[in-house]
């Protein structure tokens, strides 16, 4: 598929734009004239500079504005975070040299004028330092494709302007940048650079749309994750909502994971038959005396074992699951195993180089030492050039971060130093074997060191001084090369004479000391364990030993220079040291496992048997892959009075999986090493059959082969993996398709009208069960007959919640969550901080236009409901948001336990990929998945279960300022730790600035919890919109703000912090529980199944009694809620959704709060 033409209708959208489009879709667009005025106002906002925190900004600028010459600002030493003030001061002085004498308002007006002028420039080119500030993902996406200047079309004319919501942009084809897109990038760069001082134009639009959404009285129904358990319990809730006439009151339907099964079934059913028909059929009006339920409900009962409808040893359904898994696993291994084996072949290449006979090749020894010296100069030069005290902080404004970030360090410092260490390792090994007749100088050097003497090595012989002199020169040259990067201020600084001499002297001394440590390490390796004949041990230990030598020399340098360094430099060098330690330990473990692993396995097999050893290795891998996708770790139990478990028993569950995973990883390395050994012998058989018969599976013997042999094996494996990765699709051959096809058959197939479904007679699948998301909006209904009321009905508007994995994301505040919210709806697909794309482009018939099929998000004709539903339930994924683990993710990828899905980036970084249903090349996504290298700046993003971010679907509904939100939380939570609720409240408060609390108390308990208090299934929460950012203002004559004085909880007023404000929201939180008072059929099932109603989410094979128990519990819960609301508040469920009775609901809730906190109740013992 060719790259799409980026136009207004398929460009990346920002959050304010998609919320405005959702609002217009649900509530209707304003008149055309009014809409045009609104867009014109947005365009005016875009060019305005509104300053925030003006006094603080002027105070920060004062220091720089008082300098006499603007040019002085370029050379004045400053902290990195002061650079924006320096730059702004320069701009102001350039515009008005007398700015320092201006009054307050005049200065502010000048700042506005100067910044507004900057919007007209090419800021990434003229002010590249701005690209180094912490940028929003959307800004980074725009910046990524800032490659070319705007170009004329072949006709010499600019492309036609396309009106957009808020800005008229000239979107150009390909990667070229239009002037309007440039202005958008400039605006975002300016806002991100001067964050806190320049108002974000999108914030104004968001404030307006939030107010409109709240005032419209929007409501939401959320179904949580929890697999088929959540879907089945939710069905009972859904039927209960119909009985109390609530289903037609919801504006939004928000689903996650298992709740998405049910939500997608409902949306597809409404799409196929119309809302009124669905609403009536869910009332359980009998279609037949013997079939009282609607056909779609009966269909779900038949497919309660949706993965394998027919279970049994000879069931084709069960064997099909195994066949699909084996096929996909084999195809994945054809890509992964050659690449992993190529990686483990590298130690064999290095070991063969160590054992290579170079006794008659002095020039090669000289060359390898020269390469090592050059690498040392480059690596040490980077250290001295880019320490925090160096010029990189103060002078080199262009691409500062790109020179000093971790990626640059790895490429230009660690890699050269690693190469230098390897060169020293090889050079020394070859030097030890040198033939006396080949080089007079090298032989004299060798003899002076007395390598064959009783002490093994004479470090302080003249040969030792020559080597130490060489390391000194290399270090000194690296330091001297960094001098041009030192700051002008530092060069001009007047120092005492001894301080001027200190650094070069220390550089010379530590260079010589590093040479001494390298010789000492060589002596230890030569005289102790690693003698000259043990090349394998030398290969494993030499690099870590020499790396530690450099590390110790660096420590001495830091100590001697401490009189001239600060905390920042010491932190930098500490991180540098950390990477050296990673290099040393990584080399030791990898080389040890690959080169010595088979010997270790043979010794273990001799002790416990071959079959046991093989079973432990293979079983560990399979066990890790299966346990890696198990349910989330529980928090603290509410019922804590049963005695504290021992420390060991608490620790074992946390250690079991990591230990098993490590055993599996070790086994994998050993098997890959064995594969390399087999291939090396096979290649030798083609070269010399006699040598093949003599060569045994012995690491020492295989290391003595010509390095060309293992090198050819490594190259061949890399090429094989690369070629096989070209045609094999990473998405198609994961477990996602298996999961999706069966979910579609069970849930979307159930929504089809009788007689329309025509499944394949052999497989039972009907591809037409699936629906494109873009078709799920009126007038696209497939229903043959539809009521007049349903023709333009656009609610409930379905939001499917997914997690966008950020395991390698740069936001340090998200290191625990490792994911962000991603949603798919009938209008858009994307993420709040990244951007969105449209899933629907309407033609005259209201259906996707086949001529514009490159413009949809997620596929040729857009993403489908089945795909979105399945991604939302992709719990078993190597990258799992805040459950991600490197080792476990590696093994889950290896064993193809992969339900997640790769899609094009919906942000600006995905301009070339957003329309694709999967990556073009398989290798990189697979490796990213395996190594946890998932983020939001790559052309493709990795999506998985919405519960990996937030499992209730509440986050997105609070974002949309829904006034009443009903949440059905059927996650696995047998101890009632409320992990999913706590996680949602926490992230909503952090990201959206809105708190949620439960001032009426929380009376939902675990099954085993004993209390005399009333036990309920509903908790009423307060969503504090009135106190959040963009707070909802009160209507005239009402109070929204609460008194700041602490009147005490015994005298609660209507504006107390404990009460609901009229502009708050209400959360109706429903959770399944078992108290023993439930109907007898539910009681019977719960008596047998002690975990009910929180049986494991891993159980996706529901029996008839299990299915009915959860469904019936949902209906019973709704009946109890209706009764409790009437008893406690004299309210019906419908009252919360009636705008005319909103004030009555608030007063009833506050009255109850006042009663709860009255002196008489507070005096009661707990």
UniProtKB/TrEMBL annotation:
GO terms for molecular function: phospholipase A2 activity. The keyword Membrane applies. Keywords: Lipid metabolism, Membrane, Transmembrane, Transmembrane helix. The keyword Transmembrane applies. One of its GO terms (biological process) is glycerophospholipid catabolic process. GO terms for cellular component: cytosol. Residues 221-313 form the PNPLA domain. The chain crosses the membrane at residues 331-351, 363-387, 408-431, 459-480, 501-524, 536-557, 578-598, 604-628, 654-687. Pfam families: Patatin (PF01734). It comes from the Bacteria. InterPro entries: Acyl_Trfase/lysoPLipase (IPR016035), PNPLA_dom (IPR002641). This is PNPLA domain-containing protein. It comes from Spirosoma endbachense.
């Amino acid at each position: 598929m060719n790259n799409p033409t980026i136009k207004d209708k398929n460009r990346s959208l920002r959050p304010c734009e998609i919320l405005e489009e959702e609002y217009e879709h649900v509530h209707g667009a304003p008149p055309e004239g009014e809409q045009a005025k609104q867009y014109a106002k947005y365009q005016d906002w875009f060019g305005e500079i509104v300053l925030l925190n003006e006094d603080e900004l002027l105070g920060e600028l004062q220091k720089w504005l008082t300098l006499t010459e603007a040019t002085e600002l370029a050379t004045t030493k400053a902290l990195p975070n002061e650079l924006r003030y320096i730059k702004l001061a320069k701009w102001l002085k350039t515009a008005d040299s007398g700015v320092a004498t201006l009054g307050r308002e005049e200065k502010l007006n000048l700042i506005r004028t100067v910044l507004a002028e900057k919007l007209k420039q090419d800021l990434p080119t003229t002010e590249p330092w701005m690209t180094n500030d912490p940028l929003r993902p959307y800004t980074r996406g725009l910046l990524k494709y800032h490659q070319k200047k705007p170009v004329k079309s072949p006709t010499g004319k600019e492309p036609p302007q396309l009106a957009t919501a808020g800005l008229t942009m000239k979107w150009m084809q390909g990667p070229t940048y239009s002037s309007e897109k440039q202005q958008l990038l400039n605006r975002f760069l300016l806002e991100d650079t001067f964050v806190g001082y320049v108002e974000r134009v999108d914030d104004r639009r968001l404030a307006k749309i939030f107010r409109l959404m709240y005032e419209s009285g929007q409501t939401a129904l959320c179904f949580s994750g929890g697999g088929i358990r959540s879907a089945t319990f939710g069905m009972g809730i859904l039927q209960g909502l119909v009985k109390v006439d609530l289903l037609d009151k919801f504006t939004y339907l928000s689903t996650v994971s298992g709740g998405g099964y049910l939500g997608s079934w409902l949306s597809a059913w409404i799409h196929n038959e119309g809302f009124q028909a669905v609403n009536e059929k869910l009332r359980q009006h009998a279609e037949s005396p013997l079939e009282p339920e609607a056909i779609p409900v009966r269909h779900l009962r038949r497919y309660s074992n949706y993965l394998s409808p027919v279970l049994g040893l000879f069931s084709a359904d069960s064997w099909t699951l195994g066949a699909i898994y084996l096929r996909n696993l084999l195809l994945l291994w054809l890509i992964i195993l050659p690449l992993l084996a190529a990686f483990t072949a590298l130690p064999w290449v290095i070991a063969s180089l160590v054992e290579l006979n170079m006794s008659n090749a002095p020039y090669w020894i000289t060359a390898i030492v020269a390469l090592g010296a050059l690498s040392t100069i480059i690596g040490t030069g980077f250290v001295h050039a880019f320490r925090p005290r160096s010029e990189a902080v103060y002078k080199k404004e262009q691409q500062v971060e790109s020179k000093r970030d971790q990626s640059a360090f790895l490429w230009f410092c660690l890699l050269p130093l690693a190469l230098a260490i390897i060169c020293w390792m090889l050079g020394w090994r070859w030097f030890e074997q040198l033939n006396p007749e080949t080089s007079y100088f090298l032989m004299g050097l060798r003899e002076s060191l007395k390598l064959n003497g009783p002490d093994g090595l004479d470090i302080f012989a003249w040969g030792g001084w020559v080597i130490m002199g060489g390391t000194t020169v290399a270090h000194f040259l690296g330091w001297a090369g960094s001098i041009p990067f030192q700051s002008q201020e530092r060069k001009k600084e007047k120092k005492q004479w001894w301080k001027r001499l200190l650094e070069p002297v220390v550089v010379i001394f530590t260079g010589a000391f590093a040479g001494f440590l390298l010789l000492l390490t060589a002596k230890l390796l030569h005289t102790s364990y690693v003698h000259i004949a043990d090349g394998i041990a030398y290969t494993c230990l030499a690099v870590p030993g020499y790396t530690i030598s450099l590390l110790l020399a660096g420590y001495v340098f830091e100590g001697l220079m401490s009189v001239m360094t600060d905390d920042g430099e010491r932190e930098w060098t500490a991180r540098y040291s950390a990477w050296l330690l990673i290099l040393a330990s990584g080399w030791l473990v990898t080389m040890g496992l690959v080169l010595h692993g088979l010997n270790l396995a043979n010794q273990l097999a001799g002790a416990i048997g071959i079959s046991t050893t093989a079973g432990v290795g293979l079983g560990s891998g399979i066990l890790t892959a299966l346990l890696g996708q198990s349910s989330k770790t529980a928090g603290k139990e509410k019922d804590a009075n049963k005695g504290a478990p021992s420390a060991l028993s608490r620790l074992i569950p946390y250690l079991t999986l990591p230990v098993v995973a490590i055993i599996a990883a070790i086994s994998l390395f050993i098997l890959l090493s064995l594969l390399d050994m087999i291939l090396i012998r096979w290649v030798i058989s083609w070269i010399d059959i006699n040598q093949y018969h003599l060569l045994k599976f012995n690491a020492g013997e295989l290391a003595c082969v010509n390095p060309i042999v293992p090198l050819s094996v490594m190259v061949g494996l890399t090429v094989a993996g690369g070629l096989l990765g070209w045609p094999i699709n990473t998405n198609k051959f994961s477990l996602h398709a298996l999961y999706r096809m069966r979910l579609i058959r069970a849930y979307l197939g159930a929504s089809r009208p009788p007689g329309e479904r025509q499944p394949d007679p052999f497989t039972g699948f009907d591809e037409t069960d699936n629906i494109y998301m873009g078709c799920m909006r009126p007038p696209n209904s497939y229903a043959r007959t539809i009521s007049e009321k349903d023709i333009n009905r656009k609610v409930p508007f379905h939001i499917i919640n997914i997690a966008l994995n950020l395991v390698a994301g740069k936001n340090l505040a998200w290191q625990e969550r490792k994911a962000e919210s991603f949603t798919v709806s009938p209008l858009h697909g994307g993420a709040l901080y990244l951007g969105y794309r449209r899933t629907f482009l309407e033609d005259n018939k209201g259906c996707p236009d086949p001529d514009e099929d490159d413009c949809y998000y997620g596929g040729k004709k857009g993403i489908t409901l089945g795909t979105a539903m399945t991604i939302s339930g992709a719990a078993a994924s190597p990258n799992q948001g805040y459950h991600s683990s490197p080792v476990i993710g590696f093994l889950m990828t290896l064993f193809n336990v992969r339900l997640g899905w790769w899609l094009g980036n919906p942000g600006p970084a995905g301009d070339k990929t957003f329309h694709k249903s999967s990556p073009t090349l398989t290798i990189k996504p697979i490796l990213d998945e395996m190594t946890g290298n998932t983020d939001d700046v790559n052309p493709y993003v990795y999506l998985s279960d919405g519960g990996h971010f937030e499992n209730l679907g509440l986050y997105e509904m609070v974002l949309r300022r829904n006034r009443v939100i009903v949440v059905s939380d059927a996650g696995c939570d047998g101890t009632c730790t409320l992990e999913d609720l706590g996680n949602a409240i926490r992230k909503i408060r952090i990201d959206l600035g809105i708190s949620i609390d439960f001032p009426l108390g929380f009376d939902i308990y675990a099954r085993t919890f004993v209390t005399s208090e009333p036990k309920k299934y509903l908790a009423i929460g307060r969503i504090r919109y009135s106190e959040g950012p963009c707070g909802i203002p009160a209507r005239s004559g009402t109070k929204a703000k609460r008194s700041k004085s602490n009147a005490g909880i015994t005298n609660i007023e209507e504006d107390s912090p404990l009460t609901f404000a009229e502009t708050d929201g209400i959360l109706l939180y429903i959770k399944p529980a078992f108290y023993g008072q439930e109907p007898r059929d539910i009681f019977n099932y719960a008596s047998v199944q002690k975990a009910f109603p929180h049986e494991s989410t891993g159980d996706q094979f529901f029996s008839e009694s299990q299915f009915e128990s959860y469904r019936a519990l949902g209906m019973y819960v709704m009946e109890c809620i209706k009764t409790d609301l009437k008893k406690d508040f004299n309210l019906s469920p419908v009252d919360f959704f009636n705008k005319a009775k909103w004030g009555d609901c608030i007063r009833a809730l506050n009255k109850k709060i006042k009663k709860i906190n009255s002196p008489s109740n507070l005096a009661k013992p707990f």
